Every structure is written in C-alpha cells, then in structure tokens.
C-alpha cells in the first residue's frame, strides 16, 4: 500500500536532464531552460506513475514525500 504523495522535490544538483521522468510523467515533470527537471503539477499523475518516474531517474534526483512529510523514495 502506497501512501498518498504530498510533495515532490527535484534535487537540481543531481538532475542530469536525462528526462526519463518526463517520458513517464510529462504532465508532472518538465525540463526548464537549464535542462533540469521541474515539477509543473504534482497532482497530474497518480501516485504509482510518479513513483515510477522517480525510480526511473538514473541519479535518484527525484525525492517523493507523503502528505505527512515522510520520505517515500528514494
Ligand atoms: S530523470 Fe532524473 S536526471 Fe532525468 S530529468 Fe528527471 S530528475 Fe533529471
């Protein structure tokens, strides 16, 4: 059972612009002008998709928290 996702953070120092998160959840993640992922809308994909996107990141730059602020991933 997956807790409800409350917050998604992209660590800009870790992000290498690989864009696999965007391939999986384009409604949630986009690349900005520095080729770093930004969260455009955390509510536009279901929790499972967001976790898949986070797990697809080769540098584990996507940090996912539940609504209580507990870290779900990584
Ligand atoms: S998958 Fe990771 S490294 Fe690639 S754009 Fe997304 S956050 Fe950045």
Automatic annotation (TrEMBL):
SUPFAM superfamilies associated with the record: 4Fe-4S ferredoxins
Coiled-coil intervals: none
Keyword Disulfide bond in annotation: no
Record-annotated 4Fe-4S ferredoxin-type domain positions: 6-34
GO molecular function, one term: electron transfer activity
Protein task: Ferredoxins are iron-sulfur proteins that transfer electrons in a wide variety of metabolic reactions.
UniProt-listed InterPro entries: 3Fe4S_ferredoxin, 4Fe4S_Fe-S-bd, Fe-S_cluster_ET
Protein name: Ferredoxin
UniProt KW keywords: Electron transport, Iron, Iron-sulfur, Metal-binding, Transport
